[in-house]
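Hello,

I think I submitted the NAP job twice by accident. Can you confirm which output corresponds to this input? Input:
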Amino acid sequence: MSTTSPARRVAVLGAGGRVGRAVTAALLPHGLHVEAVLRQPDRHDLPPHPRLRVVPGDAQRPAELASTLRAVDALVLAVTPFSAPPQSFDDFDLDYYAAIVAGIDATWRAPRRRLVAVGLAATLTLDSGTVLMDDETLFPPALTPFAQAHARHLPALAATTLDWAVLTPPAGFGTPDGPAAGQAYRLVAEPLSREQATTTLTYDEYARAVADEVVRPSVHAARVAVLSRA
Ligand SMILES: NC(=O)c1ccc[n+]([C@@H]2O[C@H](COP(=O)([O-])OP(=O)(O)OC[C@H]3O[C@@H](n4cnc5c(N)ncnc54)[C@H](OP(=O)(O)O)[C@@H]3O)[C@@H](O)[C@H]2O)c1
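Support: Only one job matched these inputs. Its output is below.
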């Protein structure tokens, strides 16, 4: 489903994280109202802004998100089950992201439902015919379950009627904002060359791509890579 009307109010799940924080900062200059959804809103340190509201919510408890979702026409999904690699994946649910997406789809009642999800470089298809996570020089095999959970995002989203896009950063994502900050990004369809998939990208560059896809959607029902123009 796609519409052309611009988003007015957007929720960011994981707004306190590294990516979610940058996305929140990139959304506000567009004039949007941003609902920063946090599991512990009393512990946040997001800079105050007249159009930023911090609301409690857990992406894995969609019923508790119902009132927030009712009020927004776009959503950014920037949560992760681990901020650092876990000791073990024994109890990890490979459907972590798929279940969140299904819950959002079932709960979100609004005429316009634009969802932009943060992807994982490990899932990118390379022009060699392989997937990045299959190359252990590029992605630690021990983290494969996490990449598999991200990969299950796509079929889960495809099973919804959301207007969705997955924006996937390259493996060199999260380099400090420096000389590249302020450069434009580009959206690239798969397959990617190994060089493209492993390039660097700052949080700010990536966040601008997400904000643009919220405000003026160009990617529908697809995953694309976000690469730096630098
Ligand atoms: N190169 C790459 O492809 C690459 C690199 C980095 C990240 N990523 C992706 O980017 C996304 C965000 O990662 P990040 O580095 O920003 O992670 P992060 O800094 O750990 O932040 C994640 C945020 O999500 C929140 N969160 C976790 N579970 C939640 C839930 N159930 N409900 C609501 N909020 C929840 C956490 O809040 P709490 O404080 O409550 O825990 C945290 O603020 C992930 O999908 C990750 O895989 C991709």
